[in-house]
């Protein structure tokens, strides 16, 4: 079949890995794939999906920019009788299409909760603790979801944490500058959460010269958590620098999406409707042993992804 | 000068004529499509052409506003932010419902926005009132830009860059990054409503598939054509337009000749913001949500790029709405063809840059011919 | 004597229209060659070809008997040609010294040797008796001063051929004298000079040989003794001219058009009283820097003034330029390139700029194109503007004199009551000057008042009913037509006497 | 009192700068500590170095939109070379500069030889350069050898390397612009291209040089930034052209050519970074940060406008001595 794969960008490892997984699986199954990169522009994405529809594709896999645009685009497809699967980011309502989702906020909450607990455990019972959160681009739903997840985790320990929010705009250089300033302003840090794993090298560059980049168990280690579950995070968790990362099961999601679309096309169904949830989990120093290979980043790592 | 046979000479003259005319970019677009059509047959399918056109209208309206600013030798980087802010504002006013989970933390929760939606939800002519409010907001943005440029003699680039930062941040802050959906149908129809639709195919088909029906005339098309026509008259046929171009060519001379330079500069920035708002209205309507991130990313480069490819000069004094029209057309056709080429996502940018360069090179050739042309 | 440079059948066309056709002549070493011709005759184009700025369409040149084909201005400089362009070619954002050395700075250890440059610049400037600091930015100099800097730039190169394309348009008599002395001096040192000017008396005084161009062709050449001024004029314009100035067709009538009282702006002008009557041509004379242009700008509302009142036809005037224009004022500035014309716009667009509103029709002020075509065409005929097509030819492709006419025409379309003309005939040929004078006379005859600023005393004495003389921002006195006396006016201008 | 007002007005930009420092300093005293100030300068170097090059292009009356992509592509190729040939970081640095020069040369070729407007050329190369880089990496991140970070985080004589590179670039551009013939000719070119040609200057060379300088600066800026992180993400440098132009324009360069200084670019970049980091220091709400930052930049431009006007008034020509009437 002829399948249109419309995604919102390819700028982080997670999206690149998803992209690869989906395109490769489809091609292996003998389908032809039309790729459309919206480069984070919803309008362009809508245009691209319309374009796909106009080309007469048999089905669409969509990675939307956010929930609201997803609703519109799904409607665009279904009203033109093209089956559609939404990958990873849930539409604001689940009335149409096959929806494969992970709950960013919940995963973030688990991962952040893990390091906050560690911080609490290490400190005297009444001490006020300082947590730093690196926030993504405020125009990006994922960033907002992750920020919310972190806030929910903090809310579980009322009155215990002072939070410093650091803007990154999903940009390493910005994150470096801002984090460096934040650390200078308030050098005592008890826990840190980054909204995306891709910022770990940046965090390291800030902490290392200040002697704050320590392995778990060493004096001065800052409990550190992220989200995505990429290869670097896996490596750092194994080395002990990082304590937790929120993981979405990328391979599960990709496979579910591909299967759903193929099934719909084969059945001639134009408006399949189903929600497939990826529960996700947090890979932590605690569950590393048993769950390592559930994390896509660790699989990549094992394949030698970082040895280039 | 040479003694070449007469008919050949005429042919060459015709070719040169073609190259030098105002419609050059139109011919370029047609030539481009014809060149690619054998390799990418889907490019010329009615479905695709309709799609290309539908992508063109909102961009065209925004680019027209930009053309006016370019005509006075300015630049308006805040158009994207104006789109974001006005779309959020309009949507907040008319939305039918808002999710507390998303909006409870916003500064407007409780007084402007509640779970029952905005103040104009369900009100008679609520959409019209909301659009009026958006218009007012756009005028205010334009006034701020224009006054800073005209009164404080600040460079337009920095003024509008700052305006872009502030207004888009303001839009994000208003909704705390939330997109405002649940808009009334009257509003959404503006973005996709068909006025005339056509169907090419067998008549006896019992049920016509939705995708076999092509929207030929849509609301966005009508709105954009009206704006374009009005703008064309305004810029290239009225006293106001001549004064705009005069300012772009030589501000001092215009001032000494009694042109109300400041007032016109302000008017031009207002015009630009209003055009942005109308374009944004169409974007918001077809996305069915007001979005604080609308018009972000490389949108502005598309807008300015389209205007400049059309032939409008960044240094002012040389601008035509019709040029922008064709420039935008070329731009959307290019985008569509890039999709059709089915390049890998990793190559698309390179090809895009290459096409822009080729178009510009043809333009250079054309200018050179113009200069050397024996009349 | 040998020929330094000879031109052989040089031609140049712009857009297929010939600016020079088959021009051949030679320049003798250590002589001054005058080139004269009407505006647009092709003088500057010819010089641009010699200076390597423009490539000939056909023909060739010999330099000291050898073929000379400059690829750019740098080639001309290298073999020893210095060129003072008609339109100033200075960089207003750089200092005087930098302008002098821009094509080759003396260096020390790879970096510019500022000390040496400033010293040498000062020397070059002092040759022209200029005493300003070479580190001052050119943008802050008056047009006259800029012209002198341009001349200094040519002098410092020690060139063997100097081309002066209308060098005195912004100079005062005193500076002109100084320039002439410099030219004589250069000649005696063996330099060769080509001198272009519309001031024929200067040409006669200075030059050894004459070349006359008309419509791009060489019409006659010879030694200066063969060319008395009337013959020059006849060769240039192809007919005789009765006199330099048209007869004044009216006497000023009583009513006051412009009245200024006690205009004062600290540091600029001081307690200026001025009146212009209907039908009167008021000449405003002064030396460069006397503040005439400043006064004009104040009158026109372009610059503020701290004290004083201006009224037009009895109505007090305040506010921006626009109010002044609407009340009936017009202002032809001395800097047509920066303040007068839109260089890239067509002649017609320039002509209509000041009266655009009048061409608006209907509620949206749509431009009435037929009327524009008709009025501009009439104006072109009235002013005899030489342009191939006023709707497509840009102003920058006109000769200097014709550009000036366009600026005047722009205001003429408004039919103003008071015309302020700042150096209106700068760079204009005798024929066109006569036309501009006639135009001024007609405006006056129709009852308009005219204030004419000029550095050419002859022209003021020929045209004005009354001459007011300024010195250092003050009015030093006025002389009525019947009392016109060159010595007295100059004395007033130099501030040697006052009334 | 009057003198104070006069001083404030004629140095309004500098005064404004000090006020910003004080304002944040009062709220968060650590902001004024040497470590923090050094950090500001270090973080300014990224945009600052590129703004120095951009200033040169702006002086010619052109524009370079491709800097963001050069920041990405030049270090990438340098990194690949470092990894394939085991080059030391210093050699990688040189490779980045050479690549930068090449990319700038490409821009210059289209602008100078083929005479396409700079805006379009650099808009196209913005896409082409980034596209090429994305293609090289298949859109994944690129990890530099560990020695890269050692370089980026090192100090020379107690001065962090990024600051040192920033300073050297600034001095080099300053001397080039201010004290060499080539530099003064760039100003002349930007003031009046036609006059420059008539004066016999090699206008093509002057213009080409500007684009090469700009790209080299962008390459340096990207390389130095990346050397601090050790990893190059695909989105690196995207959209930075606006930051860079803003810094240059805030520093006094005009998009219409003819004006601008190296010092101005440094000041512009530093001012913006100071405000940015001040907001982080004082813990301002993330949503408010861009709003305040925009306001600060706007105020700085107004202050600069006032200074300009004062300067003009002061230098205004007097025909008669003041006060003598
Ligand atoms: N750059 C140009 N493009 C097109 N036409 C030009 C250009 N420069 C000059 N011309 C035309 O060439 C002709 C000769 O112009 P030129 O400047 O040589 O006259 P001129 O004798 O110097 O006149 P003036 O005394 O007014 O300076 C004119 O008709 C003018 O319109
Ligand atoms: N140092 C300077 N700084 C700024 N502007 C100057 C300077 N010198 C001269 N000008 C400008 O040059 C123009 C000529 O002024 P000036 O007072 O010399 O006029 P003028 O008396 O009419 O003399 P002329 O017209 O012969 O030059 C004015 O517009 C003036 O503003
Ligand atoms: Mg001439
Ligand atoms: Mg004057």
From TrEMBL, chain B:
Localization per record: Cell membrane
DNA-binding recorded as keyword: no
Chief location category: membrane
TM region(s), chain numbering: 24-44, 56-75, 82-103, 123-144, 151-174, 212-235, 264-285, 297-315, 322-340
Keywords carried by this UniProt record: Cell inner membrane, Cell membrane, Membrane, Transmembrane, Transmembrane helix, Transport
InterPro entries reported in the protein's UniProt record: ABC_transp_permease
Membrane topology: Multi-pass membrane protein
Pfam families linked to this entry: BPD_transp_2 (PF02653)
Function (record text): Part of the ABC transporter complex LsrABCD involved in autoinducer 2 (AI-2) import. Probably responsible for the translocation of the substrate across the membrane.
Subunit details: The complex is composed of two ATP-binding proteins (LsrA), two transmembrane proteins (LsrC and LsrD) and a solute-binding protein (LsrB).
Protein name: Autoinducer 2 import system permease protein LsrD
Organism the protein comes from: Pseudorhizobium tarimense
TrEMBL record, chain C:
UniProt keyword terms in alphabetical order: ATP-binding, Cell membrane, Membrane, Nucleotide-binding, Repeat, Sugar transport, Translocase, Transport
CDD domains per record: ABC_Carb_Monos_I, ABC_Carb_Monos_II
Origin: domain of life: Bacteria
Alphabetized Pfam families for the sequence: ABC_tran (PF00005)
Domain (ABC transporter) ranges: 5-240, 252-497
InterPro entries for this protein: AAA+_ATPase (IPR003593), ABC_carbohydrate_import_ATPase (IPR050107), ABC_transporter-like_ATP-bd (IPR003439), ABC_transporter-like_CS (IPR017871), P-loop_NTPase (IPR027417)
Family, similarity comment: Belongs to the ABC transporter superfamily.
Name this polypeptide is given: Ribose transport system ATP-binding protein
Organism of provenance: Pseudorhizobium tarimense
Lineage: Bacteria, Pseudomonadati, Pseudomonadota, Alphaproteobacteria, Hyphomicrobiales
UniProtKB/TrEMBL annotation, chain D:
TM region positions: 7-26, 46-73, 85-103, 109-129, 150-177, 210-230, 242-267, 287-306
Highest taxon listed in the record's lineage: Bacteria
Cellular location(s): Cell membrane
Membrane topology: Multi-pass membrane protein
Annotated InterPro entries: ABC_transp_permease (IPR001851)
Subunit structure: The complex is composed of two ATP-binding proteins (LsrA), two transmembrane proteins (LsrC and LsrD) and a solute-binding protein (LsrB).
Protein name: Autoinducer 2 import system permease protein LsrD
Organism: Pseudorhizobium tarimense
């Amino acid at each position: 079949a002829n399948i249109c794969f419309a995604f919102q960008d390819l700028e982080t490892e997670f999206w690149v890995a998803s992209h690869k997984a989906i395109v490769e699986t489809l091609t292996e199954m003998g389908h032809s794939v039309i790729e459309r990169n919206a480069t984070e522009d919803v309008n362009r994405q809508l245009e691209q999906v319309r374009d796909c529809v106009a080309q007469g594709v048999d089905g669409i896999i969509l990675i939307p920019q956010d929930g609201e645009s997803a609703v519109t685009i799904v409607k665009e497809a279904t009203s033109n009788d093209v089956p559609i699967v939404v990958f990873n980011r849930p539409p604001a309502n689940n009335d149409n299409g096959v929806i494969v989702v992970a709950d960013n906020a919940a995963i973030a909450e688990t991962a952040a909760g893990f390091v906050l607990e560690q911080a609490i455990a290490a400190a005297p019972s009444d001490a006020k603790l300082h947590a730093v959160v690196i926030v993504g681009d405020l125009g990006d739903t994922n960033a907002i979801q992750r920020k919310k997840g972190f806030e929910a985790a903090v809310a579980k320990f009322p009155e215990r944490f002072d939070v410093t929010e650091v803007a990154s705009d999903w940009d390493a250089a910005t994150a470096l500058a801002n984090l460096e300033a934040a650390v200078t302003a308030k050098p005592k840090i008890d826990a840190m959460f980054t909204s995306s794993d891709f910022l770990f090298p940046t965090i390291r560059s800030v902490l290392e010269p200040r002697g704050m980049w320590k392995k778990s168990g060493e004096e001065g280690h800052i409990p550190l958590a992220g989200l995505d579950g990429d290869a670097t995070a896996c490596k750092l968790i194994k080395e002990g620098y990082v304590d937790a990362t929120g993981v979405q099961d990328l391979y599960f999601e990709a496979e579910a999406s591909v299967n759903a679309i193929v099934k719909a096309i084969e059945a001639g169904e134009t408006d399949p409707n189903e929600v497939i949830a990826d529960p996700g989990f947090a890979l932590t120093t605690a569950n590393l042993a048993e769950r390592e290979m559930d994390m896509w980043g660790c699989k990549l790592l094992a394949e030698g992804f970082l040895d280039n | 000068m040479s003694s070449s046979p007469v008919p050949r000479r005429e042919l060459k003259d015709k070719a040169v004529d073609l190259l030098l005319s105002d419609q050059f970019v139109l011919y370029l677009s047609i030539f481009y499509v014809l060149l690619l059509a054998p390799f990418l047959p889907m490019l010329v399918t009615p479905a695709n052409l309709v799609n290309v056109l539908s992508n063109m209208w909102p961009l065209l309206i925004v680019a027209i506003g930009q053309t006016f600013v370019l005509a006075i030798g300015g630049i308006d980087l805040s158009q994207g932010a104006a789109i974001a802010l006005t779309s959020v504002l309009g949507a907040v006013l008319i939305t039918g419902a808002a999710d507390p989970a998303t909006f409870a933390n916003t500064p407007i929760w409780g007084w402007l926005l509640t779970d029952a939606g905005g103040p104009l939800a369900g009100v008679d002519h609520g959409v019209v009132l909301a659009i009026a409010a958006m218009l007012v907001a756009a005028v205010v943005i334009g006034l701020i830009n224009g006054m800073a440029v005209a009164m404080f003699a600040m460079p337009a680039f920095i003024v509008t860059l700052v305006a872009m930062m502030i207004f888009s941040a303001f839009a994000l802050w208003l909704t705390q990054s939330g997109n405002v959906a649940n808009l009334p149908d009257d509003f959404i129809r503006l973005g996709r409503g068909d006025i005339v639709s056509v169907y090419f195919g067998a008549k006896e088909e019992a049920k016509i598939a939705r995708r076999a029906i092509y929207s030929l005339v849509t609301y966005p098309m009508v709105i954009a054509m009206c704006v374009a026509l009005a703008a064309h008259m305004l810029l290239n046929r009225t006293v106001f337009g001549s004064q705009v171009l005069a300012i772009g060519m030589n501000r001092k001379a215009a001032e000494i000749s009694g042109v109300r330079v400041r007032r016109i500069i302000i008017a031009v920035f207002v015009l630009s913001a209003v055009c942005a708002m109308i374009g944004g209205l169409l974007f918001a309507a077809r996305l069915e949500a007001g979005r604080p991130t609308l018009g972000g990313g490389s949108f502005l480069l598309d807008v300015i790029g389209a205007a400049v490819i059309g032939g409008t000069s960044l240094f002012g004094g040389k601008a035509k709405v019709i040029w922008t029209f064709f420039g935008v057309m070329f731009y959307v056709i290019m985008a569509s063809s890039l999709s059709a080429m089915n390049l890998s996502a990793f190559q698309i940018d390179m090809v895009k840059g290459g096409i822009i360069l080729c178009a510009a090179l043809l333009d250079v050739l054309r200018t050179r011919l113009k200069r050397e042309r024996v009349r | 004597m040998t020929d330094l440079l000879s031109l052989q059948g040089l031609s140049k066309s712009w857009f297929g229209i010939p600016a020079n056709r088959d021009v051949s002549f030679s320049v003798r070493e250590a002589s001054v060659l005058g080139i004269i011709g009407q505006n647009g005759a092709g003088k500057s184009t010819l010089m641009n070809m010699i200076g390597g700025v423009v490539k000939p369409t056909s023909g060739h040149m010999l330099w000291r008997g050898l073929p000379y084909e400059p690829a750019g201005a740098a080639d001309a400089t290298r073999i020893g040609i210095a060129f003072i362009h008609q339109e100033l070619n200075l960089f207003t954002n750089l200092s005087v010294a930098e302008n002098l050395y821009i094509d080759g700075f003396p260096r020390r250890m790879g970096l510019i040797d500022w000390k040496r440059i400033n010293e040498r610049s000062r020397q070059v400037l002092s040759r022209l008796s200029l005493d300003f600091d070479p580190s001052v930015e050119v943008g802050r100099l008056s047009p006259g001063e800029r012209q002198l800097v341009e001349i200094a730039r040519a002098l410092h190169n020690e060139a063997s051929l100097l081309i002066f394309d209308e060098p005195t348009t912004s100079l005062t008599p005193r500076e002109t004298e100084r320039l002439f002395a410099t030219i004589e001096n250069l000649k005696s040192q063996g330099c060769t000079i080509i001198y272009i000017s519309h001031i024929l008396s200067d040409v006669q005084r200075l030059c050894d040989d004459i070349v006359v161009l008309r419509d791009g062709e060489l019409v006659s050449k010879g030694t200066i003794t063969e060319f008395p001024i009337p013959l020059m004029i006849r060769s240039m314009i192809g007919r005789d001219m009765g006199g330099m100035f048209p007869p004044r067709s009216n006497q000023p009538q009583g009513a006051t058009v412009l009245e200024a009282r006690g205009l004062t702006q600290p540091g600029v002008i001081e307690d200026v009283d001025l009146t212009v009557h209907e039908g009167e041509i008021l000449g405003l004379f002064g030396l460069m820097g006397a503040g005439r242009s400043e006064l004009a700008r104040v009158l026109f509302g372009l610059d503020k003034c701290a004290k004083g009142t201006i009224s037009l036809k009895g109505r007090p005037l305040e506010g921006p330029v626009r109010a002044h224009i609407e009340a009936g004022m017009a202002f032809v500035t001395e800097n047509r390139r920066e303040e007068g014309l839109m260089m890239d716009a067509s002649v017609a667009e320039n002509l209509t700029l000041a009266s655009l509103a009048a061409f608006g029709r209907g509620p949206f002020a749509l431009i009435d194109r037929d009327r524009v075509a008709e009025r501009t065409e009439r104006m072109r005929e009235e002013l005899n503007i030489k342009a191939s097509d006023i709707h497509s030819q840009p102003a920058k492709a006109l000769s200097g004199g014709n550009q000036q006419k366009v600026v005047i025409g722009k205001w003429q379309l408004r039919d103003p009551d008071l015309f302020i003309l700042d150096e209106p005939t700068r760079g204009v040929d005798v024929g066109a000057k006569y036309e501009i004078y006639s135009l001024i006379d007609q405006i006056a005859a129709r009852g308009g008042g005219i204030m004419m600023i000029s550095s050419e005393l002859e022209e003021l004495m020929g045209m004005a009913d009354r001459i007011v003389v300024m010195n250092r921002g003050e009015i030093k006195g006025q002389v009525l037509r019947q009392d016109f006396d060159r010595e007295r006016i100059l004395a007033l201008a130099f501030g040697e006497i006052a009334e | 009192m009057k003198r104070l007002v006069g001083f404030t007005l004629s140095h309004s930009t500098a005064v404004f700068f000090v006020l910003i420092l004080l304002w944040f300093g009062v709220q968060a005293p650590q902001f004024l500590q040497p470590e923090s100030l050094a950090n500001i300068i270090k973080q300014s170097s990224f945009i600052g170095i590129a703004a120095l090059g951009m200033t040169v292009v702006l002086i010619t009356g052109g524009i370079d939109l491709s800097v963001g992509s050069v920041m990405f592509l030049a270090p990438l190729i340098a990194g690949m070379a470092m990894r394939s040939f085991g080059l030391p970081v210093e050699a990688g640095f040189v490779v980045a500069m050479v690549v930068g020069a090449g990319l700038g040369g490409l821009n210059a070729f289209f602008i100078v030889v083929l005479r396409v407007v700079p805006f379009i050329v650099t808009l196209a190369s913005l896409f082409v350069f980034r596209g090429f880089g994305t293609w090289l990496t298949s859109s994944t991140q690129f990890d530099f050898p560990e020695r890269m970070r050692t370089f980026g985080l090192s100090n020379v004589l107690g001065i962090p390397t990024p600051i040192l590179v920033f300073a050297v670039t600034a001095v080099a551009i300053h001397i080039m612009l201010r004290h060499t013939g080539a530099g003064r000719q760039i100003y002349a070119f930007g003031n009046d291209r036609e006059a420059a040609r008539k004066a016999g200057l090699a206008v093509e060379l002057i213009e080409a040089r500007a684009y090469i300088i700009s790209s080299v600066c962008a390459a340096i800026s990207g390389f130095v930034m990346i050397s601090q992180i050790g990893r190059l993400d695909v989105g690196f440098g995207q959209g930075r052209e606006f930051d860079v132009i803003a810094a240059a324009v805030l520093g006094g360069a005009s998009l219409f050519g003819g004006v601008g200084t190296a010092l101005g670019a440094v000041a512009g970049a530093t001012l913006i970074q100071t405000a940015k980091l001040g907001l982080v220091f004082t813990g301002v709400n993330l949503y408010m940060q861009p709003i305040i930052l925009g306001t600060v930049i706007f105020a700085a431009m107004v202050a600069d406008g006032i200074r300009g006007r004062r300067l003009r008034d002061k230098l205004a020509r007097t025909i008669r001595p003041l006060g003598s009437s």
